[in-house]
Amino acid sequence: MVAVSSKELLTYYLITLQLGETVQSGLPKRSASTASTESINIRHQRQQSQDHQLHDLQQEPSEGKDVPKGEPRPPKSEWVDYIKELQRAHEDDVAWARAKPSIYQIPSYLKDAEKDAYVPQIVSLGPYHHGDKRLSQMEQHKWRCLRHILERTNHRMDYYLGSVKAVEERARTCYDEKFPSMSSEEFVKMMVLDGCFVIELFQGVKGGFKALGYPRDDPVFSSMGGLMHRIQQDMIMLENQIPLFILDRLLGLQHGNPNQKGLVAKRAVRFFEPLMQTDEHSRTRLKYDPLFYEGGLHCLEVYRRSLLRLGTMPEARTWTKRGSRRRQQHIRSVVELREAGINFKQRKTDRFWDIKFKCGTLRIPRLRIHSGTRSLFLNLIAFEQSHFDCSNAISSYVTFMDNLINSPEDVGYLHYCGIIEHWLGSDAEVADLFNRLCHEVAFNINDSYLSELSADLNKYYSLKWNNWRASLKHNYFNNPWTIISVMAAFVLLVLTFTQTFYGVYGYYKPGF
């Protein structure tokens, strides 16, 4: 047997597999029994062929055989590793086809730049940050919350462990990592402990922690506790999520109905609403909006849907110039748009994404910015970038605002118009926040619901008459004194013209 190079042998092995599939698919249709028999024979022959090839791959060159010089044959162990990797890749394809993950790990290129926004600082939920020593202090409070639940319901811990154990595989498929080093017992215990902790927080915010048996000055389970805001920020991170059906199951066990759905989603919205309120009416409207339930989702996606389902989201429309390829719609900053005569006004609505442009006026709803806004937006964008068949509504809004805001002057004017309200140190920090939100985000604003609005803005900006009118207004009508001066000059010009007219007219008609 003549030895061949590793590349040629591996190529031959793959071509053989594909050739067998091609031949089988190209056979003419036969009767059911005949087709079944031939299919079995083909599969049997293919398996024998593969076994012989694998056997040949594992054989060392026989003594006395000619081995071409310059083409060293890899050792047997290396060929076995190749075959194992190919088999593992096939298993991964099958697993990904069956699984529908919704809880993703942030890519390193995003996490390296904004680590604090993606990594929890107080509490870990789920497997991604499980066992982190920085977050170990909160573990004792999780056990405290579980003890309170068991005492109130007169249940044993085995009651919850057994129920979650029945859906363990479904829970694992919600994550885009398999966690093979985490045993079944450890995974189920983590789900119960973390899930009960989340539910207890939802219950406490809804009905009060005192009614659940916690003292008024409890360091964690207290509405007045200083940690609550930081815990909310950690619980809204993409890597720190528990499948919603697990939370529904644990809450249902406490109420005697493990199959109930939707209750946790409504309580999650109420728990997270302080993270983004546009005005005083947003809390009431969020509270009574119905939520669409899907078992594979989590609290971050539920909260995202609650923000976007307050009204009808405009459909994404791709804008293209006739006769040209699609191009990125970049809009001007606030300062540049003002110079073109575009006015900015606050839109009275709690739908922060509902931006309108009409008759030269851009109406933007109020946005309140605090220390947790950056983390919230980044995790929402990361979910939209990772999740299949997910709209890019949040990414569209943030990209639009990033284009508008390039400098502290832009922020200052939007603040003057009542569009932006912030509790950061300066307008420069707000400008830096928006300018950093869209780093490393693969997004085309043409595919967003704001694409048509952006095109209208650019069209209005490009009209020369609007620029001339804006320049006239900026130079001669920007304050009362210049207005008075212009009016006085106009009156003087009219009087001068009248005097000249009557002087010339009296010359030709002296008797007038």
TrEMBL record:
<feature type="transmembrane region" description="Helical">
    <location>
        <begin position="481"/>
        <end position="508"/>
    </location>
</feature>
<feature type="compositionally biased region" description="Basic and acidic residues">
    <location>
        <begin position="52"/>
        <end position="77"/>
    </location>
</feature>
<feature type="compositionally biased region" description="Polar residues">
    <location>
        <begin position="25"/>
        <end position="42"/>
    </location>
</feature>
<protein>
    <submittedName>
        <fullName>Uncharacterized protein</fullName>
    </submittedName>
</protein>
<keyword id="KW-0812">Transmembrane</keyword>
<keyword id="KW-1133">Transmembrane helix</keyword>
<keyword id="KW-0472">Membrane</keyword>
<dbReference type="Pfam" id="PF03140">
    <property type="entry name" value="DUF247"/>
</dbReference>
<feature type="region of interest" description="Disordered">
    <location>
        <begin position="25"/>
        <end position="77"/>
    </location>
</feature>
<dbReference type="InterPro" id="IPR004158">
    <property type="entry name" value="DUF247_pln"/>
</dbReference>
